[in-house]
Amino acid sequence: MSVYPSAQFLISAAAAAQFPADRGAEVAIAGRSNAGKSSAINAITARHALARTSKMPGRTRLLNFFQLAEGKRLVDLPGYGFAEGPPPERDAWARLIEALAQRACLKGLVLVVDSRRGLLPPDLQLLDWAQGLRHPVHVLLSKSDQLKRNEARMVLAKSAATLAGRGSVQLFSARDKLGIEEARAIIDHWLSEGPDAGGEAAI
Ligand code: GDP
């Protein structure tokens, strides 16, 4: 049974004017191309094809909004785009991301990182950005099924050390269904925060 039985793709936005209304709660999910982000979205939402839309050609520079339940959304950030592409495209992307960041409904950022690579400079750049916005960050070390138990332990420890308290981190495998409950619990928690919760439990 699907965890979010009414989960649906909402819109691919090229401009802030196309964003859904700034109400409810949103969690952004980012990852470099091929990091396993679409697989993670599908695994966490238990919807096999939910994130397929983001794979459509020409949609790489768009923000993809998914509604998990009424007032609860995931926003798929394809690639990072900070240092890629020609300047006009880069600026447009930066504006789009900044507009997303300004939304009151944005509650946190999930960063999908290939566990075989670990956290790299572009990941840390994104982390700094999220930190500047005071949004919590959770890192999924994806494709952990590809690592030996020892290697997995090491990459987890190393990533936690690199994060140094700036975010939480876990091993994740969409293929082997590893760490899905853990990731889902964090996203659910962020999405359940009221508009004024500010990271603390609302009284
Ligand atoms: P995206 O570009 O970040 O959305 O990445 P995808 O979800 O499309 O995955 C990129 C590639 O990694 C595909 O070939 C997937 O089959 C593979 N992949 C994704 N998740 C896993 C996983 O948990 N384990 C393994 N072994 N491969 C995975």
Task: Describe the protein.
The chain has 203 residues and is α/β, with parallel strands linked by helices. The protein is built from five helices and seven strands, in the order E-E-H-E-E-H-E-H-E-H-E-H. Helix 3 links the parallel strand 5 and strand 6. Helices cover 31% and strands 23% of the residues. It has one domain: 3-Layer(aba) Sandwich (Rossmann fold), CATH 3.40.50. Helix 1 packs across helix 5. It has a seven-stranded mixed beta sheet, with helices on both faces. The site of guanosine-5'-diphosphate has 15 residues, from helix 1. Guanosine-5'-diphosphate binds next to helix 1.
Q: Could you give a quick summary of the protein structure above?
A:
The protein has one domain (8-193): P-loop containing nucleotide triphosphate hydrolases (Rossmann fold). Helices cover 31% and strands 23% of the residues. It contains five helices and seven strands, in the order ββαββαβαβαβα.
Fraction in beta strands: 15-25%
Which class of secondary structure composition applies to the elements? alpha/beta
How would you sum up the major sheet? 7 strands, mixed
Number of strands: 7
Mean pLDDT, all residues = 86
CATH level-four homologous superfamily name:
P-loop containing nucleotide triphosphate hydrolases
CATH level-3 fold name: Rossmann fold
With strands numbered from the N-terminus, the spatial order across the biggest sheet is 1-3-4-2-5-6-7
Under the CATH scheme, the architecture is 3-Layer(aba) Sandwich
Q: pLDDT below 50 for ≥5 consecutive residues: which ranges?
A: 195-203
Radius of gyration: 16 Å
CATH class: Alpha Beta
Envelope shape = globular
The overall number of domains is 1
User: What is the helix tally?
Assistant: 5
